[in-house]
Design a protein that fits this description.
337 residues, mainly alpha, two-stranded antiparallel ribbon, 4% strand
Length: 337
């Protein structure tokens, strides 16, 4: 199933895009420290007089300009790409795995779970995430970068979107179990484990990849929403030179949240990370379309039935010579008898 997805050029290009940007991010982190750590706070003329101060526009310092602290936005975003993409990738893996596993629970458990989720879904997911992650952010300002903070944020986001994944997978399983061949397998004595292994899992493999990519998009959107409330992955610190806050991991949503008030004064600071998010979400949608197209063509070729003409229609139609037949009347029949 995975190899069939790689036949899609859209899916393959998307995989190469994310792998490429993560590899570039690590290379810049290891070998290009001067690129993303250097500051340009003041700009002076030939006489040494200050003529401009950070932030600088993309026209002054290409390609994306600088932030309020004087850091080059382009290299900051490339460095933060590995944290953003790998963090979301890990959350999606855990969500899909736990969602698929917990969706196989008995029907009584599922009914009670649906009742609980009805109350849970009345409150937006972003508010649950803010409620659980805000104390973590207060702790990060005191301790700085700490792996425990990322683990706690990782756990919160895993469980924030998990109920929706469980309900979706369970609904797909219930619809699939209504097929006649599954009912026939039950009547013939197939065990539940065999039905899961031979039927349900083969069906779920077709939709789990699409579900994984859809969760990727949902988490990107959730990170953007959280950033407007000051929730940053990895926490935030304060630059002692300028007194401005900064993201400890340089993840993309963090720049949006820190500089949302700069949109009118220096819009490129907010537009730059939004551009990276937009391109990544566009690539994810292209990957989803490529997978659906590949799965649709494979399923069509798998279940396609060639229409065979009946035997009588395949025979050559012969024209009948009416002169070989003599009309028979009722009188001739009586004479013959």
């Amino acid at each position: 199933m995975i190899y069939r997805n790689f036949r899609s050029k859209r899916f393959l290009c998307g995989v190469l895009y994310f792998i490429g940007i993560v590899v570039i991010s690590y290379l810049i982190t290891w070998f290009g420290k001067d690129l993303y750590m250097s500051k340009t706070i003041w700009m002076r003329d030939t006489n040494g007089d200050v003529i401009a101060a950070a932030p600088f526009s993309p026209l002054t310092i290409p390609p994306l300009g600088t932030d309020r602290n004087g850091f080059n936005l382009f290299f900051q975003l490339l460095v933060g790409a590995k944290f953003t993409i790998l963090f979301v990738f890990g959350v999606c893996i855990v969500q899909v795995f736990l969602g698929t596993t917990l969706a196989h629970t008995p029907s009584i458990v599922q009914k009670n779970f649906r009742k609980i989720c009805k109350v849970y879904f009345f409150i937006p997911t972003v508010l649950w995430a803010i409620l659980w992650m805000f104390p973590i952010m207060l702790h990060s300002q005191l301790t700085g970068f700490n792996m425990d903070i990322i683990i706690k944020q990782f756990t919160v986001l895993c469980f924030a979107l998990l109920p929706a994944v469980i309900l979706y997978v369970n609904q797909e399983i219930n619809l699939f179990m209504k097929n006649e061949f599954v009912t026939t397998s039950k009547i013939l004595g197939a065990s539940k484990f065999r039905i899961i292994r031979k039927h349900i899992w083969l069906y779920l493999k077709e939709i789990l990849v699409v579900l994984f990519l859809q969760q990727f998009v949902q988490l990107f959107t959730l990170l953007i929403h959280l950033s407007f409330f000051g929730i940053l992955i990895g926490g935030r610190g304060v630059d002692y030179d300028t007194g401005k806050p900064y993201s400890l991991t340089n993840e993309w949503a963090g720049l949006i949240g820190l500089y949302k008030n700069e949109f009118l004064a220096a819009p490129w600071i907010v537009i730059a990370p939004l551009l990276f998010f937009t391109v990544s979400i566009f690539v994810l949608h292209m990957m989803i379309k490529g997978i659906k197209k590949e799965q649709g063509s494979s399923l069509y070729s798998m279940y396609k039935k060639t229409k065979k003409e009946p035997y009588e229609q395949r025979q050559k139609k012969k024209e009948i010579d009416k002169s070989l037949f003599i009309p028979v009347s009722s009188k001739s029949i009586e004479k013959g008898s």
